[in-house]
Amino acid sequence: MRAGRSSAAGSAAEKSLRVLEAVAAPGGPHRLTDVAAAAAVPKSSTFRILASLVDQGFVRQEFESRYEVGPRLRALSALVDGGEPAGIGRVLGELQRATGQTVHLALHSGDTITYIRKLEGDQPFRTASRVGMRMPLHTTAIGKGVLAHLPAGEVAGLVAATGLPRRTPNTLTSPQALYAQLEAVRSRGHALDDEENEPTIRCIGAAVLGPSGRPVGGVSVTTVTFLVSREEIESYAPAVRAAAEALAPLL
């Protein structure tokens, strides 16, 4: 970690950028104390800045209050220079060719996922999703895949915090119904969004797990209901699960 400048130096924006730079330094996830020292920002101010950056998805808070680069910053990096392991593009391309449908890769932060890659399908339509878009956990296939692999207490806390807002008539707004579906997701290894996030859109997804078994994000295949039946999209499950496994060491 580099030596910082005077803690009094810089505007609020400059301090936030120094904190972000410290989080992105090699050797992360970094402790709050180390981030504050490297950024030369008081610990209390660093904590407030980090809380805002976590809320916005630019920083991700890991176990024991350690911090690392979040999905929105990774998405921004991908937009600027395509800075990602070459294998990610290969895995996503193989999934798109195997299904002919739109493929999404998203990273998890807090109570949302953020799309960092999108490959359009071979169909004569385009979905409204875009790189950098943040989506709820309980309404999306990737989000439910993530929730299924988080500790039960953490899931309950997220549910209490978000309140499970309804986005379509099919959205699961009951905690009990969501928990039952998450149990099924854990047993079969993939999740389905059956017009729960957006009318006429059906997705199948699987969580991408980190070395500790904690989900870092997920991958999904997106279809439209008037062209792809539920039975057909379920047939993509093995390819989606295989893609998630292949992506695990790359994220």
TrEMBL record:
Gene3D superfamilies: 3.30.450.40, Winged helix-like DNA-binding domain superfamily/Winged helix DNA-binding domain
Entry keyword set: DNA-binding, Transcription, Transcription regulation
InterPro entries: GAF-like_dom_sf, HTH_MetabolicPath_Reg, Tscrpt_reg_IclR_C, Tscrpt_reg_IclR_N, WH-like_DNA-bd_sf, WH_DNA-bd_sf
SMART domains attached to this UniProt entry: HTH_ICLR
Lineage top rank: taxon: Bacteria
Domain called HTH iclR-type: residue spans: 10-71
PROSITE patterns associated with the record: HTH_ICLR, ICLR_ED
SUPFAM superfamilies, alphabetized: GAF domain-like, Winged helix' DNA-binding domain
Domain IclR-ED: 72-251
Protein name per its UniProtKB record: IclR family transcriptional regulator
Organism: Streptomyces amritsarensis
